[in-house]
């Protein structure tokens, strides 16, 4: 059985990752499962997040990567909605990502949006702090070997989805 594609959408909060995930699921002729940092954070009890947020989140993120591999092993495509940060517990995060997905069809896509636009998007959402994107940007791993890049300020989520799917499969998404 062929392994499914693993597409890691890497970007800060409010860069547009989740909107692209939704657009890919709505438009792509290829079916994708989704794993996301936010979903795996919800597997951790509040008490543990208060005790040692990064320790438990780091463990959950590593488990998320292994979950993505299980989907791929079964021939299923998977989207990872996340961010590669360099923090204790994950560092060297990018190296761990490459190691975990060695031998797998992994494409890391940079989801870019200018930080001032992310700030505006954060302000429009009640559950995000104004400077959350800037803080994450400071923690992001550098020198990532991206397979592809999209800019959500210049393109709609649907256009970004079309570009990503076209890059992966050489086809256009369904309208």
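^ Assign residues to that structure.
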């Amino acid at each position: 059985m062929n392994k499914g594609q693993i597409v890691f959408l890497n970007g800060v909060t409010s860069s547009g990752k989740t909107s692209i995930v939704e657009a890919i699921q709505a438009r792509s002729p290829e079916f994708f499962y989704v794993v996301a940092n936010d979903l795996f954070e919800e597997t951790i009890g509040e008490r543990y997040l208060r005790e040692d947020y990064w320790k438990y989140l780091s463990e959950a993120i590593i488990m998320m990567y292994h979950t993505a591999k299980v989907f791929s092993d079964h021939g299923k495509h998977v989207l990872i909605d996340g961010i590669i940060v360099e923090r204790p517990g994950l560092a060297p995060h990018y190296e761990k990502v490459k190691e975990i997905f060695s031998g797998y069809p992994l494409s890391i896509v940079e989801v870019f949006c200018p930080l001032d636009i992310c700030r505006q998007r954060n302000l429009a959402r009640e559950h995000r702090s104004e400077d959350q994107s800037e803080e994450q940007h400071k923690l992001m791993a550098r020198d990532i070997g991206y397979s592809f890049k999209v800019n959500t300020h210049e393109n709609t989520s649907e256009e970004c989805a079309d570009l990503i799917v076209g890059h992966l499969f050489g086809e256009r998404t369904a309208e």
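The longest strand covers residues 106-112.
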